[in-house]
Structures are given as C-alpha cells and as structure tokens.
Amino acid sequence: MIFIDSHTHIYLEEFDNDRQTVVDRAIEEGIKYMLLPSIDKSTFDSMKRLVDDNPQNCIPMIGLHPTSVKDKYKEELKFVEAQLMENKYCAVGEIGIDLYWDKTFAEEQKYSFRHQINLAKENNLAIAIHTRDSFDEVYEIVKEEQDGNLKGVFHCFTGDLEVAKKIMDLNFYMGIGGIVTFKNSGQDKVVKDIPLESILLETDSPFLTPAPYRGKRNESAYIRLIANKIAEIKEVDLDTVAKQTTYNSINLFNIEE
Length: 257
Hints:
With 257 residues, the chain is α/β, with parallel strands linked by helices. 42% of the residues lie in helices and 14% in strands.
C-alpha cells in the first residue's frame, strides 16, 4: 500500500533534531513520496538539503508563499523564475493569498499569485494553493486564469460542499489533512460527498496534526491516520483510499514512478 503526502514542510526548523528519522518513519508507514512546498528564499537551502539527502522520496516545489510577500517580493519572484529555469520541480507552490495575518500587501499577494500561475502554465506544472480568509479572491483569479492548461490543488481544504463543487468545476483537487480527524470540525460531512477522484492526502507538517496527536508536531507518517479517517467516512477500505489518492497525486504532479 503506497501513500503520498502531497504537502509537507519537514525541512523547517521544527525537524532540525530528527529530520531523517521523520523521513524514515514515513517511508516505513508506506508514504513513498513527500512533496515539499516552498516558502521563500530563507527556507530554500534547508529544503534542497532534504531533497539531496532523500532524492527517491522527497520531491520539491518552488514558489513564494503569500505570507512571505513583503517589500522584496519582486526579488523573491525572480528567484522562483530562476529556479524554474535551472532545476526540476513538481509544482509551483505554495502560492495563493492569505488575508488572515496581514492585509498590508494584499494587492502584491494578488499580483504574485497571478504571476506564479502564469509561470506554472508556461512550465506545464501544477500549482499548490494556499487560501486563508481568501477563498473568494483566490477563486476569481483561478477562474480567470483557467484556460484548460491550469491544474492544481486547493491545499488545506476546509470549505463546504458548495465550495468543493466550485473547485471541482475548475478541475482542481482538494488537499485533505488532519482537520478531517477533529471531532467537531464538521469536515467529515463534506468529505463524505467529495469523490475520492478529487482528493489528495496531505499533512502540512509540522502543522494541523491529526487526532490522536493533535497539539503535537505533525509529521508525514500520520498520513495513514488521515487516510483511515477518510476510509471510515466513505465506508471503503484503506487500500481504496491509498490507491486513488496516490494515483491522483502522481497524475497531478507528474511523478515518475
């Protein structure tokens, strides 16, 4: 049984003391691939080291995270462009709009998001989208840019069924993570009606740890807990969830088996 963690930040400092152990533990649990969304230049070297140490299992993305869109965002975007020319990536991500923490650079976030969508289209790559307090803004931009050549995933999906349908109409996937295991999240009722063909598994490590480890550091090995919960909600076996979600990730991110 093979799983893919489609969104994990195990290159961050939270894993500095046991990073390789965390990777090995995930592999032992059947998580064959861990996809690494980029944040900005400051975390790039750590991500690259992780990939260099685990080239068979850790696959990088490149992109500028919306919360890193600050004064020097154009310099950061040039770095993304250069990386796309020089190296191989499975997606442009993590990109999007975040209006939760700070709205100071809201317009610059929109510009950066659209710019990176176009970079993805030019390079025939998927996008991994971050939306926090910004679904409407993100949706409008993706809808405008969807010309049949845009593909990707709405990472950390927490919307209702109406939002899910909008995403599926764009031919995008939804990333389902630890929140689905939270007792009162209500996400189980929505996930029940989302076809497996539209779902990717993700941890977003070290954040959003699934039950029963909620409140502790998240890690890629916990993908099985998320998959088990989805299997329970949909009343199918774990193998069915593993096969379909793995196929979805391989298909979206052009992972060479």
